[in-house]
Amino acid sequence: MHILEIPSFFPPYGGEFCLEQSKALQQLGHEVRILSRVQLGITKGWKDYLFLPYTMGVETMDGVEVWRDFQRGIPKVVRPNVDRWLKGVLNLSEEYFRQYGYPDVIHAHCVKWAGRAAMLIAQHHRIPYVITEHLPSMIYEEEFRRASLGQWEIPLLREALEKADRVVVVSEELVDELAPYFGKRYSHQVVSNMIDTRFFHYAKRQPSDTFRFCAIGNFIPRKGYDILAGAFRRLKSQGVNASLTLVGPDTDSASCRRLYANIPDVRFVGTTDKVGVRDILYSADALVLPTRSESQGLVLLEAMSTGIPVITTDVVPQSVRQHDGCVTVPTEDAVSLSHAMVRLISEHFSSEHISSAISESYSPHIIGNQLQQLFFSLLERQVKQ
Prior knowledge:
The chain has helices spanning 16-27, 46-51, 78-100, 111-125, 137-144, 147-163, 173-182, 225-237, 254-259, 274-282, 298-305, 318-321, 334-346, 351-362, 364-384; strands at 2-7, 31-40, 57-61, 64-72, 105-109, 129-133, 166-169, 188-190, 211-216, 242-247, 266-270, 286-289, 310-313, 326-329.
């Protein structure tokens, strides 16, 4: 099967889930390539804006062929930027088809805006397309609360979802979360994001007299670092022998350090790579993430895959919460979070059982097979028509 992947986001701005799914499908014997157009923002990183290539290039990333194109965004000019992005993706697709022919299926990652591009390409060439939606409702809420944008964006995105041959959501709860914007008039199926269970594999921890918590995620309001600060401050005031390591973009910033000022045993790591994240997990006894909104929470699954329990909030999908290693508390509740952290220190979890359960549900082979079966079913339906 020939699969063309189109991500809404790609490095240097995220989108690793597209590459991981492409690798899994390729390992199952399929012909898979990625067509990536990234809009660069000068405020996000002026060096990337100035020095990344100005012409389309083809490279191999982890064994997957990637067509990479960069668009220089015009600050505060949203709709023309979107129109340019869509036109650029359509032009890239035509060049791709001339070289490789038409794919059997187009797989877009996130409706905004790869899903819209996939719809336009599919309409012109009569190719089935699937949209996988990864983004939590809070991300859309932050943008659509600006009515001038939402008034023109939402109908375009809703149409792309409704015309898709299938919409893949990473959790069942995400359909209801996004319904205020996109409705539910589309055919959907739940397929989780995958994690690299071979990389985030089980490892026995070295014993420590201090219970070692870690938190991994961007230092942004959605992740609830302020709630964690209140909970850990309360925990330390009770004399609990515990430490906390903060990992992720801006967790070593001045604003993060101010938030945790005068709280002992807190370490600020900041941005690190995949190996660094795993090293942190292997030196921790538990992960804590008091998130306010989460479509799935891959870092929770990665932590459990290495064999440690996690504490998070009840906004995390039931598919994650059902695992024995996942403890949940209400959102916005630092007191409940501190109580859960204290309880976790004295509870016993089977680390190997936690790790094994995650591998059986979220490994690349498992998720790749689910996507493969979905794509095959769409092609069979097309033949019958």
